[in-house]
Amino acid sequence: MSVDTVSLTGWGRTAPTTAVRFRPRTYEEAAAVVRGRGPRGVIARGLARSPGDAAQNAGGSVLDLTGLARIGAVDPVAGAVRCDAGVSLARLLRVLLPQGWLPPVVPGTGRLTVGGAIASDLPGLDHRRSGSFARHVSALELLTADGEVRTVLPGTALFDATAGGLGLTGAVLGATLRLRRVGSALMSVSTERAGDLDELLARFTAGGDRMPYASAWIDLTARGRSAGRGILTRGEHAPPPVRPAHAGRARFLPRAGADRGRSGAGAGRGPSSAPGLLGALPPLPGTLLGPGPAALYNEVRYRAAARARAGEPRALTAFFHGPDAFPEPHLLYGRGGLVRYRFTVGHGQEETLHRVVRRIAARRGPAVRAVLHRFGAADPGLLSFAAPGWSLALDLPAALPGLDRFLDGVDEEVAAAGGRVCLAADSRTRPETVAAMYPGLAEFRELRARLDPAGAFRSDLSRRLGL
What we know:
Blueprint: E1 2-8, E2 17-23, H1 27-35, E3 42-45, E4 61-64, E5 80-84, H2 89-96, E6 101-102, H3 114-120, H4 127-130, E7 137-143, E8 149-152, H5 157-162, E9 171-178, E10 180-181, E11 186-194, H6 197-206, E12 213-218, E13 230-237, H7 276-279, H8 291-304, E14 308-315, H9 316-321, E15 338-345, H10 350-363, E16 370-375, E17 389-397, H11 403-416, E18 420-421, H12 431-437, H13 441-451, H14 460-465
Parallel strand pairs: 2-4, 3-4
Antiparallel strand pairs: 1-2, 5-9, 6-10, 7-8, 7-9, 11-13, 11-14, 12-13, 12-16, 15-17, 15-18, 16-17
């Protein structure tokens, strides 16, 4: 096991803090770290895909679990696989797709770990049908505060607190995942353009669940009658005959190189697997994405999209993990890093979504990434993010003047509408706001106090929000 003292940040590269990092190779080594922890406790960390401070622990210990990366054989009868928590989703896809299997929930980046996906209980593009990631975990191995490894099953209080619990009930060391059969590594994709937010929401709901995977990009620089315009993308698994002529025997193989690098675990869309020019640059002192360049980029992106296109064959990894092929977004946002703001509001609260979109557009925030999802039934995790309704995720430069105050105001609107912010992405929400948004928080705190009275598992986020 290697040990070093390092300065760590989340993927957004805000608020760095220093901790002792342990890299265990076995469950026994991980348990030894927890038993020998110092007064500041310990938190698990994967590929650091959380944009905020969920996997940091100032002055304490961090348990880097990327060395736990074994994948077992697929059980074809049960349709399940057992793997370690440090396995990345990109690597899991490379192993499973050639055998005709897929995790039933695929988040928007392959550069996060199985443990991070469980601790964040990440939703995918088909939440209305499949729910979030932890819903398809049939068992997990959890390293608890006493240094013991427990098998935890769905339907128990500890499982519901761990799913979406951000590593605060213990460190997930391994899990058994239920899988989905797929006929090929190709998707049949449709795209359509919408001239404003009303049209975009109408198109989103008009198709029902005929194509299970759906998301939309929103132009948050458009104002007036065009506010909230965007591009809706839907997809479904293509049957084996539907593939490009050159695909040949490679129809089950994902894009090579999808798991190179170690930049990122937890929640969000991914960094580059092809370095490109920007991938070779250090973080820039300012931001390339001021309001003018961002508006120009969004205008070109919107105009270049087809008004409607259906049945386009696309590689599965390109459909789910397309952003992984591009340079790190925070390189464009300067040394201050980026803030990812993700929230959800319920059906019937579309006017709140309209107001938030109009406020961001009026402020001329240089947002080039803004993704809209539609969620189904709430997940059982006490701190799971997804709930029935609409979710919008956007990135903004952390150095924008007045950003915290502006987002505090958006928090108030979201909370008043019965919505919530995503804790796995958070880097700045106030603790009283979170308490109002998450009705399961009191139960979560009570369970933590009972299982971990000494506070073995702590993070910068847990201290900041009083979790």
